[in-house]
Amino acid sequence: xxxxxxxxxxxATDDPEALAHVAGCQDCFEALEAxxxxxxxxRAAVPPLLPAPDLASAVLARWAPPMPTRTKVLRxxxxxxxxxxAVAVEGLVGVAPGxxxxxxxxxxxxxxxxSPWLVGLTTVRDSxxxxxxxxxxxxxxxxxxxxxxxxxxxxxxxxxxxx
Length: 163
Ligand SMILES: [Zn+2]
What we know:
Blueprint: H1 3-12, H2 16-24, H3 26-35, H4 37-45, H5 55-63, H6 69-93, H7 97-114, H8 119-130, H9 132-154
Bound molecules: zinc ion.
Zinc ion binds at residues 3, 6, 21, 25, 27-28.
């Protein structure tokens, strides 16, 4: 059965053969639907899809609550102090390893003169300076702990229920 014939027969009667054709023919289905007044009424009855007025701000507030001013100030001060400390250490020690060794020697002399229990620290220092890989590992561990502490102190996780 051809499309025009099926449409004409459906306009006059509920011919089962024409119904079967329309059920499997996209063109006939769209043509009949375009002429059906109920389809237009249903489409007009659907309310417009508008987002909730406060949806975006509510989602953003739950996802990342606004940071208190005190935390922002603390974070900025910590950053500035860290940079100043880094600059001071760089200015004091520099990139010359000989200066670092001289500083370590001065610390060792002070440790031995100050108290016998500081001898353990010199042993650790000697171990660290004797094995550069150990020193680098210790530095990496220290920096990791510092960064973790800084992260937790400045942006403490706030666990809330999703409900
Ligand atoms: Zn058809």
